[in-house]
Hints:
The structure is a homodimer. Chain A has 11 helices and 11 strands. Chain A is of the alpha/beta class. Chain A folds into 2 domains: 3-102, CATH 3.30.1330.30; 108-268, Alpha/beta knot (3-Layer(aba) Sandwich), CATH 3.40.1280.10. A 6-stranded parallel β-sheet of chain A has the order 8-7-6-10-9-11, sandwiched between helices. In chain A, strands 1-4-3-5-2 form a 5-stranded mixed β-sheet. In chain A, strand 6, helix 6 and strand 7 (145-149) form a beta-alpha-beta unit.
Amino acid sequence: MERITSTTNPRVKHLVRLRDRRHRDDDGVFVVEGYRAVRRMLDAGVHPQELYIAPEWFQGSNEGALIDEARTHGAEIVEMAREPFAKCAYRDRPDGLLAVVPQWHTRLQDLQLPAVPFLLVVEAIEKPGNLGTILRSADAAGIHAVLVCDQVTDMFNPNVVRSSTGVLFSMPVVVTSSDEVQHFLRAQKIRTVATTPDATLLHTDADLTGPVAVLMGSESFGLSQRWLADADERVRIPMAGQADSLNVAMATIVTLFEAVRQRSRSSSGGQ
Amino acid sequence: MERITSTTNPRVKHLVRLRDRRHRDDDGVFVVEGYRAVRRMLDAGVHPQELYIAPEWFQGSNEGALIDEARTHGAEIVEMAREPFAKCAYRDRPDGLLAVVPQWHTRLQDLQLPAVPFLLVVEAIEKPGNLGTILRSADAAGIHAVLVCDQVTDMFNPNVVRSSTGVLFSMPVVVTSSDEVQHFLRAQKIRTVATTPDATLLHTDADLTGPVAVLMGSESFGLSQRWLADADERVRIPMAGQADSLNVAMATIVTLFEAVRQRSRSSSGGQ
Lengths: 271, 271
């Protein structure tokens, strides 16, 4: 097993460069850091091509089993000394595990949706932390797939990986154009419900049962006109406080769980 | 006006020390940083005792009006050079404004509640970012007061201030013991609804109308037995995905907006 002791080792430079989206996309890989995230990744059946380990940073006692499992699935294991690992790590307090993982790209035609799909469409979300939190909310609400339109933040940004707490590894996510998604939703006869502060209908008064896609816009601009005009329904969340108390991640979870409420009633009612 | 040019100035040291809760509490002050937060604070009628300004860091053109307003309300204005300000600032990209503000402490008997109170009780929340986000959610949902029991994270932590996006300045927040809050809620005949993954009743099937307090527990432990046993109702949020997809801030907003839905129906129905 290779052991890296210098902070100027080419592999260290390479790992540092992977913070940059361009380099991630050129290489078709991304970085997953920390025991918990790597554990979830392996549990979800996603396998790294390289696993960098720095035993001097280890915090627990289960690292051995995790390393063995990664190796069994074909990962190259590379050991690092304390300093070079700290240079590669994204976290302030690294725990000695950092995986380089091949990117994947799910297409609309790859989705295997149930008879009554429950989808989330997000347009041009800007902050990686919001995108990760939105993935968690989608997971908690039982969303079947997340369609990311006109991507601004890439799915493999380290903060998306971190804030999704592993949901990135299990949730089907399709990144594509608004055009493609609109065409797909129409072809699949999936109703679209756009959230916008300008709607008159409350989200709780709209029908969120049946085949439905909830549409959420970007932090700065909300949904674009093309989505607002195209949607079957436009809804708003009632706001009691200051105008910006609900950010896009909070608005998403509120809307999705109202849909969960309606959908559980609808199915238990035998419809 | 005093102008600070050295990073070893005693005022710089003092400001740095205010990152530490003990020093904040000893001095009875806290720090509000950045144009937006200071603007919201002044708008909410909260006035700083000192306003540190570093024109070399200014990003906009409205700082002058804000400084004048703070001065009019009694703030001492202290100018700083680029380097000492960067040392005091909490943010990576400071914008040249940092206020030192007296802490305030609202007591249960100070609360002015409407006839049908809608309260949020949080127990021992650990992460400042969660506490701030919970305050935002409470504001958006029209909560009348937030009761923080057995405080772990103090309300004046810089990350609470930041993540509450100004709600800290407008929302009545009482920090006290669980004992006191339980006694208060009983005396006021306010029903308590505890959220816990172990409940059988869904939050959407519980009655969240009338005088009600929603109870949320800590990140690590949930609600303590004393709150679970004492509550009038125990409810859970249905979870489709991995067990930890809903954190406490997300569970709070989901529960509060279900209450908003029920309460708007209840009032429009003439009850």
